[in-house]
Specification:
single chain; 143 residues; mainly beta; Immunoglobulin-like; four-stranded mixed β-sheet; four-stranded antiparallel β-sheet
Length: 143
C-alpha cells in the first residue's frame, strides 16, 4: 500500500464557534503500536487557527477496488487545551490523500463554581523543539 499525504487544519473557538481562542495548545497525534504519539504541536494564532498539517495517509484509490489491501484513509487524533477551558479531544479523524480535513474544536469555558474533575487525555509528547512551532512527523518518529 503506497502512502500519500493529506492535511488537517484545526480551528479552535468558543461560544458555539463565535469567538476564536488564541494561544490554545493543539496536538495532532497518531496511534501506532498501541502508543498515541504527537506528530505536530501548535499554539493557535489570534484567529484560533493552526497551520495546515501535512500527514501521511493511504492511497485514495484503495476505495476504488474490491480487492483493496486496506482503507483509503489514515486516522489521527487532535487534543486541544487552553487556560480557562475544559480540554477537548477528537479521536479517529479520517485524513484522505490530497484532501484537507477541517477540524473545528469548540471549547467550553470553566466556570468559577465548577468543581468538576478534569481528566485530561495526553498523548505521548516529545519535548518542545523551541518556540510555538511544530514538531515534524520525522522528528517525532526519531524520538
Amino acid at each position: 500500500m503506497a502512502e500519500q499525504t493529506g492535511f488537517i487544519a484545526v480551528s479552535v473557538t468558543t461560544a458555539t464557534g463565535s469567538f476564536p481562542v488564541p494561544g490554545a495548545e493543539v496536538m495532532i497525534s497518531s496511534l501506532a503500536d498501541g502508543k498515541d504519539t504527537v506528530i505536530y504541536r501548535y499554539i493557535t494564532d489570534e484567529s484560533g487557527q493552526t497551520p495546515l498539517s501535512e500527514l501521511f495517509t493511504a492511497e485514495l484509490n484503495n476505495s476504488l477496488s474490491s480487492t483493496s489491501p486496506g482503507p483509503d484513509y489514515s486516522l489521527y487524533n487532535v487534543t486541544v487545551s487552553s487556560d480557562g477551558y475544559y480540554p477537548l479531544v477528537s479521536l479517529n479523524i479520517p485524513v484522505f490523500s490530497g484532501i484537507v480535513s477541517r477540524q473545528p474544536m469548540v471549547l467550553i469555558p470553566l466556570t468559577a463554581s465548577s468543581d468538576a474533575q478534569i481528566n485530561e487525555y495526553v498523548p505521548d509528547c516529545p519535548p518542545y523543539k523551541g518556540g510555538c512551532g511544530q514538531v515534524s512527523e520525522k522528528e517525532a518518529q526519531n524520538e
